[in-house]
Amino acid sequence: MSFSVIMSKMGSGYFNAMAIFVFTIIFSMPLGMVVAFGRMSKNKIIQSISKFYISILRGTPLMLQLMVVFYGPFYLFGANIDGFRFPAVIIGFSLNYAAYFAEIYRSGIESIPVGQYEAANVLGYSKRQTFGLIILPQMIKRILPAVTNEIITLVKDTSLAFAITYQEMFTVGKQIAASQTTIMPFFIAGVFYYVTNLVVAFVMEKAENKLAYYR
């Protein structure tokens, strides 16, 4: 197999890996905010459910969660899971990363001094206005480094989709390496992951610098 053919196949796998990355970000970040609100809720039932969700999703391997999401419908209900592989990957990744983002959001929100809530109340702001105009901008600034770490980790974690044989870059690389008895696909995959994370780090650093308005 020529180098150009290997690159073509790896490129296809990279596209699939980036699809996992993008859709996971789209779904997990808003879901994480919902879970964070649940975790901070004064309603003990909602708080307990959110804490249990976070505990389970952070306390068990992502690979196991992917297998449960993908094979669960078949073993539990006898459902046909043909064509369910990509949705299962997105559901599994989104649920997992939402738990991590939830705790990051919570730490950011709880780091804001109580005095700012009191000042907003004195100025007549509603709770929604207080959060949207005062708390959220400061929270984003404070949590950006932690969010960057999670996003970088996500780029690498896309390789875990191999657990349910989804054809992302690492899975394609393993197949080529096994059939051609060459380690080249792994080096190519490493370069793809590294360059992608360089871009992510660069973009997030620019965002951090833009928000560092008190320096």
Describe the structure.
The chain has one domain: MetI-like (MetI-like fold, Orthogonal Bundle). It is flat and about 70 Å long. It is built from 8 helices and no strands. The chain is an all-alpha fold. Helix 1 runs antiparallel to helix 7 (169-180), helix 2 (44-59) crosses helix 4 (85-110) and helix 7 packs antiparallel against helix 8 (184-211).
Summarize the structure.
This protein has 215 residues and is mostly helical. The protein has helices at residues 3-40, 44-59, 62-77, 85-110, 114-122, 127-157, 169-180, 184-211. The N and C termini lie far apart (54 Å).
- In total, how many domains does the architecture comprise? 1
Q: How many H/I helical runs?
A: 8
Biggest sheet details: none
Rounded mean pLDDT is 90
Structural class: mainly alpha
Could you give the order of the helices and strands?
HHHHHHHH
| The first-level CATH class name | Mainly Alpha
What is the share of helical residues? Answer: over 70%
Structural key phrases:
single chain, 215 residues, mainly alpha, MetI-like fold, flat
Chain-wise SSE layout:
Blueprint: H1 3-40, H2 44-59, H3 62-77, H4 85-110, H5 114-122, H6 127-157, H7 169-180, H8 184-211
Helix pairs in contact: 1-2, 1-4, 1-7, 1-8, 2-4, 3-4, 4-6, 5-6, 6-8, 7-8
